[in-house]
Amino acid sequence: MKLYYAPGACSLAAHIALAESGLPYTTERVDLRSHTISGGRDYYGLNPKGYVPLLELDNGERLTEVAVILQYIADRNPGTLAPSFGSIERYRVMEWLNFIATEIHKGLGPLWKPTTPDAYKAIALDNVGVRFDHVAQALGKQPYLTGDRFTIADAYLFTIVNWHNFLKFDLARWPTLVQYQARVVARPGVQTALRAEHLLKPDAKAA
Ligand SMILES: N[C@@H](CCC(=O)N[C@@H](CS)C(=O)NCC(=O)O)C(=O)O
């Protein structure tokens, strides 16, 4: 498998899942400003959507969409990064994946755009804050989103919450979320992915 990624973007969730899975994989960085990859090749030629992540399978097929790529990776090794397909526990993981994708990931989208008016950025952040309240409440009861075990939903949530480092918003209102980020960042697979994307500061904390 080959993951096309951009450092710190939502593709980091797939990078973490690959690193945590123990499966063989390679990566290639995408320049999202020019939509090119190494050698100046046009990324749209690989992914007409133009965005990351893109996962190229060993048979050459290509998958897009974070929540789908995460489940593809998890299902290469059933029962490790996600419960078996068809179980209610799996639907809980999918419920979180959808929530993170539509309520948090896309909720923060306007904050990345320099053209978004500041007043609208504040509204978007407010809306995401309400979603963080919900996540923080769930994490007050258990170490990971669905219980005691790290799943692909955690890889996704960690990645998007980590954007507070880039978008400069404060997590102090959600202490359980701060503790959760510290718990996840300490995982060896997460460290591997962060290091590969040059997101670890010299003192080994998340950038
Ligand atoms: N619906 C997509 C969204 C992916 C997405 O938003 N990717 C962003 C980075 S987090 C991106 O590559 N943006 C650059 C672009 O759209 O050109 C998914 O779930 O994978």
Key features of this structure:
single chain; 207 residues; alpha+beta; Glutaredoxin; Glutathione S-transferase Yfyf (Class Pi), Chain A, domain 2; 2 domains; 4-stranded mixed beta sheet; two-stranded antiparallel sheet; 8 helices; 6 strands; disordered C terminus; binds glutathione
Strand order of the largest sheet: 2-1-5-6
Find the count of extended strands (DSSP E, 2+ residues).
6
Give the overall average pLDDT. Answer: 96
What is the end-to-end distance? Answer: 26 Å
Bound small molecules, deduplicated:
glutathione
Q: What's the oligomerization state? A: single chain
Q: Main sheet?
A: 4 strands, mixed
Radius of gyration: 17 Å
Which spans have pLDDT < 50 for at least 5 consecutive residues? 203-207
Q: Would you kindly provide a written description of the structure presented here, covering whatever features stand out?
A:
- The chain has 207 residues and is of the alpha+beta class.
- The protein folds into two domains: 2-80, Glutaredoxin (3-Layer(aba) Sandwich); 88-187, Glutathione S-transferase Yfyf (Class Pi), Chain A, domain 2 (Up-down Bundle), CATH 1.20.1050.10.
- The chain is 49% helix and 9% strand.
- The protein has eight helices and six strands.
- It has helices at 11-21, 66-75, 88-112, 118-139, 152-161, 164-167, 175-185, 188-196; strands at 2-5, 26-29, 36-37, 41-42, 54-56, 62-64.
- The strands form two sheets. A four-stranded mixed β-sheet has the order 2-1-5-6, with helices on one face. It has a two-stranded antiparallel ribbon with strand order 3-4.
- Helix 1 (11-21) links the parallel strand 1 (2-5) and strand 2 (26-29).
- The protein is globular.
- Bound molecules: glutathione.
- Residues 9-10, 32, 50-53, 64-66, 101 line the site of glutathione.
